[in-house]
Amino acid sequence: MKIFLDTANLREIEEAASWGILSGVTTNPSLLAREQGVDFEETILEITRLVDGPISAETISEDADGMVREGKTYAAWHPNVIVKVPSTIEGLKAVSRLKQDDIRTNVTLCFNANQALLAARAGAFVVSPFVGRLDDISEPGVELIHDIVQLYTMDPEIDTQVLAASIRHPRHIIEVAQAGADIATVPFNVLQLSMKHPLTDAGIERFLADWRKREAEQVTSVGAQ
Ligand code: E4P
Hints:
It is a single chain. Helices cover about 55% and strands about 15% of the residues. By secondary structure, the chain is an alpha/beta fold. The chain has an eight-stranded parallel beta barrel, surrounded by eight helices. Strand 4 (about 80-85), helix 5 and strand 5 (about 105-110) form a beta-alpha-beta unit. The chain starts with a strand and ends with a helix. Erythose-4-phosphate binds near residues 26, 130, 165, 166 and 185.
C-alpha cells in the first residue's frame, strides 16, 4: 500500500518527502484554508516540485460544468495533478467528461460502496472512502474499505484504485492496508506517531548510555597506565 500525505502544508510535505516514503499528496479546501495567505495554484505547483506522484486538487463547483472547467484548469498546471470531485451525480458526470480528455480524477467524500462502484464505472482514477468520518458516526470505516476492494476485485473491467482517506491514527493505516487499500492518505502528525514506540526510545537511550560508559572506562584505564 502506498502512503500519501493529507495536507497543504509545504513544510510538512518537505519533511515527510525527506523520509523517502511519500508517493503522493492530497489536499482539500479545508486544508488549504488552514494555510493563511497562500495562492492555490502556487501551492499545488510547489507540491509537485517536492513530491513526484499524484497530487489531488479539489474542485469547489457543485455542478458538472463548473467541476469540468476547474478540473481542466488544474490539470493544465502539471501532469501529476489529479482533479478531486465529490461523490455526487454531478461529480460522476464530471469524472466521465474529464476522462474523455485523459484527465485523472479522485472521487472524494465517499461514504458507501454504491458511490464507489458508480465512481469506478464513470472512470475515476481513485476513489476516496473517508474512514475516520464514518467511525465518528459509529459506522465501521474500515469495513467500507473491505467492501469496495472486494467489489473492485470482482470486476476485471475496474482499475480504479482505493485511496483510504480520513485516517485518524496509526492503527487505521494498518487496518486499511490489511483491508486491501491501494493507498492511504495520512495527516503528518499521524505519520509521526506511527514511527513512535517507547521501547525504541528506551532502547536508543540504553545503547547510548552503555557506549558512553565504555568510552569513560577506556579514558580511565588509559589514564591509569
Ligand atoms: C482526503 O483526501 C481528505 O483530504 C481527508 O482525508 C479528510 O479527512 P478528515 O476527515 O480528517 O478531514
